[in-house]
Design goal:
The structure holds three protein chains of three kinds.
Chain A: H1 2-20, H2 24-45, H3 68-99, H4 104-107
Chain B: H1 6-28, H2 37-55, H3 62-86, H4 114-143
Chain C: H1 2-20, H2 25-45, H3 49-72, H4 84-107, H5 121-126, H6 129-133, H7 138-146, H8 148-168
Helix pairs in contact in C: 1-2, 2-3, 7-8
Classes of the chains: A mainly alpha, B mainly alpha, C mainly alpha.
């Protein structure tokens, strides 16, 4: 149970960074940290004690394998995380070229 | 941007081909060993990114590179959808049906239509990540002129 | 197993707290890379080699892109002032986190301890997957045969992100 609580603590650290930081790059870093904690919780739920990696050896009898379904979902989620991070970095580059700062309180003024 | 020193260029010339071949191996054996379409695709993109970083973007013809990589990713995802639609013609009338014969488990030519999915998804992922990286490089080049 | 993963998670929490309070943006990005590679070690301990491969390369590509963007722009961090308003903000924040923590404890109290059979669908996916799909890699079989719609959706998301990045970073052409 402590492993789940520590994963949730990592999620809370990411959420704290997402809310309180003023620098745009640190907001992107906090979003990434939040996603890492969710990947770990999903793979931890599917782990079975003394189970093998989910590659079946043809010809052997019944073995216990780790659950492959959360691993397939986390594989999808990792690639989606890369896609959103790439788009956020493109937005950050554009904002820096226009406003010459990464501070979100200066950017919010919508002048133009 | 300009390239890196001579040692980096020589090591990259040796390693980039090996990383590319390893990426193709991981894609083709996706149904036998860990890996599959996504891991192999990002490895192939990593080999190209290594070449661009080591030799500098001044040695590329940049506009042509982006057109090539975005055409590649479009063809990849188009073939995935065409392969899924072809399954509606044979067998059950279900999208994404596994219609090719499944050989015996453990051989390279087995598992029906899964190796073809691996190949086309690998092409698509490699093209997409390369397009993202090249868009950033081109933006930096154009805005510093 | 639980002890090892707990120790790695404690290091990751310390690293991420340091990443958020760093005075230089470059050291914040390097700490994020450290958290990412800690996730890779956890994946290898939890018997998921497929995920470890994907996470290593994607983490490297993300680090390269972020360092390139930060070195091209400013590297310094903005000062945060500390007055009465921020004390009220911190109190509200603690209250919100306490509520989230209570709901999380309620959500996991029916979960088995680490390593027991938790999910019912695991047996029906593993038994007979080799005959139904024909592949001996169960994760690939689940990803491309049982759950092929999710894979197609993910490919479309990656394609849209590449298209969106290309559109956002476009310089106005010649007239």
């Amino acid at each position: 149970m402590t492993v789940y609580l520590l994963c949730f603590a990592l999620f809370l650290v990411g959420l704290y960074g997402l809310i309180t930081r003023r620098n745009l790059i640190k907001i992107i870093i906090s979003k990434s940290i939040t996603e890492f904690s969710i990947f770990l919780i999903l793979v931890l739920i599917g782990y079975i004690d003394k189970g093998l990696a989910p590659i079946v050896d043809p010809g052997t009898s019944q073995q216990i394998y780790v659950d492959p379904l959360p691993q397939a979902m986390v594989l999808t989620a990792i690639v989606i995380g890369l896609a959103t991070t790439a788009m956020l970095m493109a937005i950050a580059i554009r904002l820096y070229r226009k406003y010459k700062t990464f501070d979100i309180r200066e950017i919010k003024n919508l002048r133009g | 941007m300009e390239g890196m020193s001579t040692i980096v260029k020589k090591v990259t010339q040796l390693m980039a081909g090996l990383i590319f071949m390893f990426g193709i191996y991981i894609i083709l054996h996706g149904h036998l060993t860990p890996g599959g379409g996504f891991a192999g695709g990002v490895l192939i993109a990593g080999a190209f990114i290594l070449l661009i970083l080591a030799f500098g973007s001044s040695s590329l013809k940049l506009k042509k590179e982006v057109t090539g990589s975005s055409n590649t990713e479009s063809i990849g995802i188009l073939m995935v959808v065409i392969l899924a639609l072809m399954a509606m013609l044979f067998g059950a009338k279900v999208f994404f049906f596994n219609f090719l014969p499944k050989g015996e488990a453990g051989e390279l030519l087995s598992a029906g239509v899964i190796p073809l999915y691996n190949i086309f998804i690998g092409i698509e992922v490699a093209g997409a990540i390369l397009t993202i990286f090249l868009a950033l490089v081109i933006f930096k080049e154009e805005s510093s002129k | 197993m639980e002890l090892t993963i707990s120790i790695i998670l404690v290091f990751m929490i310390i690293g991420s707290i340091f990443a958020l309070h760093a005075k230089d943006l470059l050291s914040a990005i390097i700490n994020m890379g450290f958290v990412g590679f800690g996730v890779v070690i956890c994946f290898l301990l939890l018997k998921a080699p497929d995920l470890a491969m994907v996470q290593i390369v994607i983490e490297t590509v993300t680090l390269v892109v972020m360092v390139a963007v930060v070195l091209d722009s400013s590297r310094k961090e903005i000062e945060v002032s500390f007055n009465r308003r921020s004390l009220l903000n911190m109190a509200v924040g603690f209250l919100a986190f306490a509520c989230l923590f209570y709901f999380f404890m309620k959500a996991i109290e029916n979960l088995d301890p680490l390593g027991m059979h938790s999910l019912r669908m695991a047996d029906s996916y593993v038994n007979g997957a080799v005959e139904k799909t024909g592949s001996i890699n169960l994760v690939t079989g689940v990803l491309f045969d049982f759950r092929a719609y999710d894979t197609m959706g993910e490919a479309v998301i990656l394609y849209t992100a590449a298209l969106g990045t290309l559109t956002l970073l476009r310089i106005k052409g010649k007239k």
